[in-house]
Write a structure and sequence with these properties.
four-stranded parallel β-sheet, binds flavin mononucleotide, alpha/beta, single chain
Length: about 110
């Protein structure tokens, strides 16, 4: 896949497009240039590539790069309510979880 596939995807449907796996402000700007409605700051749980940055570290610069042109979401390492609050405070519109679903889930995540 490459960036031009977004144009093809857009031609198929008027549904919102959300891109997952954005890790830099440069890629975030490319996303908004292609008119996506949202993007997920994610390193896919850290198991796709070794030594990626923590997603919460990348979040502020990506939020700043995107501005109000798209919604920014995040996942990766969110384990408790205070993690959710930090992500929302840093500009995420919503927070997702992966692996906690497979364990004992003691709390719920709901974006405000
Ligand atoms: C078993 C497993 C399989 C996954 N497979 C994919 C995948 O196929 N594509 C993808 O984008 N992310 C995949 N992910 C990453 C999750 O979608 C998500 O980004 C990540 O689990 C969030 O981090 P967390 O588990 O710390 O909450 C996978 C995660 C796990 C644990």
């Amino acid at each position: 896949m490459n960036w031009s596939d977004l144009e093809w995807l857009r031609s198929l449907s008027s549904m919102p497009i959300i891109i997952k796996g954005i890790q830099t402000s440069e890629d975030a700007r490319l996303c908004t240039g292609y008119g996506v409605e949202g993007l997920v700051v994610s390193n896919h749980g850290g198991h796709a590539l070794d030594r990626t940055s923590g997603t919460i570290q990348m979040l502020p610069e990506i939020v700043e790069a995107v501005g109000d042109r798209a919604e920014v979401y995040i996942d990766g390492g969110v384990r408790r309510g205070s993690d959710v609050l930090k992500c929302l405070a840093l500009g995420a519109k919503a927070v997702f979880i992966g692996r906690p679903i497979f364990g004992r889930c003691q709390w719920a995540v709901r974006a405000v």
